[in-house]
């Protein structure tokens, strides 16, 4: 383990950043990046009410076939679906019922920053806020994921967690329901807000298995709630 500080006690003076390495190909993102000699990165997570975890990954230079075959071979992944494919790579969606390392970090009080793998080398970074025991976060990860190694434990100058794009999404995500977020994300990913629109509201509603009226209702509520956070501190709409 290479480290710039010792994980000994609670974070008193600032933030701690921890970094883990995973090279076990049994982890989906690691195995896919190794097989395809590519980079795979977690972009977003959604916790559904039934306990299912939805994960959105981006991949560069990885094929649809490899994604599906790797998902089928990975315990805890219930389904895989390609969301978008373009010049910059592919965005795909996984429905996960197994325990993932990001959930372990969150459960121990850490704040996930990034999860990615390149050519079979997986890295996960997280911040430990002031007042949280960094050894508890590290211990929880190493115990739950024994094939994971701690490679860095750094003291940061900042006293508050940084707002990465992932962190900003999590703040916004807390303001909307699971269904609102899925509708908003699907509309965005499929070019609903582009001019001209890549897909109509009716087409996106069909993708989601809902009526056009329900799509419009959820989309308006989601946009109103997100804008409320951005512009003013007010109550959100649960519609």
UniProtKB/TrEMBL annotation:
<dbReference type="InterPro" id="IPR031803">
    <property type="entry name" value="BAT_GAF/HTH-assoc"/>
</dbReference>
<protein>
    <submittedName>
        <fullName>Helix-turn-helix domain-containing protein</fullName>
    </submittedName>
</protein>
<dbReference type="InterPro" id="IPR013324">
    <property type="entry name" value="RNA_pol_sigma_r3/r4-like"/>
</dbReference>
<dbReference type="InterPro" id="IPR036388">
    <property type="entry name" value="WH-like_DNA-bd_sf"/>
</dbReference>
<dbReference type="Pfam" id="PF04967">
    <property type="entry name" value="HTH_10"/>
</dbReference>
<dbReference type="InterPro" id="IPR007050">
    <property type="entry name" value="HTH_bacterioopsin"/>
</dbReference>
<keyword id="KW-0804">Transcription</keyword>
<feature type="domain" description="Bacterioopsin transcriptional activator GAF and HTH associated">
    <location>
        <begin position="13"/>
        <end position="161"/>
    </location>
</feature>
<dbReference type="Pfam" id="PF15915">
    <property type="entry name" value="BAT"/>
</dbReference>
<feature type="domain" description="HTH bat-type">
    <location>
        <begin position="177"/>
        <end position="227"/>
    </location>
</feature>
<keyword id="KW-0805">Transcription regulation</keyword>
